[in-house]
Amino acid sequence: xxxxxxxxxxxxxxxxxxxxxxxxxxxxxxxxxxxxxxxxxxxxxxxxxxxxxxxxxxxxxxxxxxxxxxxxxxxxxxxxxxxxxxxxxxxxxxxxxxxxxxxxxxxxxxxxxxxxxxxxxxxxxxxxxxxxxxxxxx
Length: 138
Description:
This is CopG family transcripitonal regulator. The protein is an alpha/beta fold.
């Protein structure tokens, strides 16, 4: 029998959100989809959001600089956090996008090296890490 290996779980590249729309707005979106302007409702909504974000791009950039936040995907693993601990430092994590704390990080290591964590977007971490950092997540 062939050796069976478990593949690593695929991490989602997006976050699902729920919005409420009036019936008229929803009907107008459905009309645009029916006419072929968009492939589906989600495509329309993603496009509208991206256009709004582009419109406010300068304001977002200035805010990122003012708050010294990282933009995009930021991973924190055991090796990096052990280096932080060895240097006697504490991280104050600020991310706009996705912050991930690896499954190789222990709750004790996370508490010893992460002073605060602010994520505008999504934080992915094992449940025990989120519990250990609950008082530090803003």
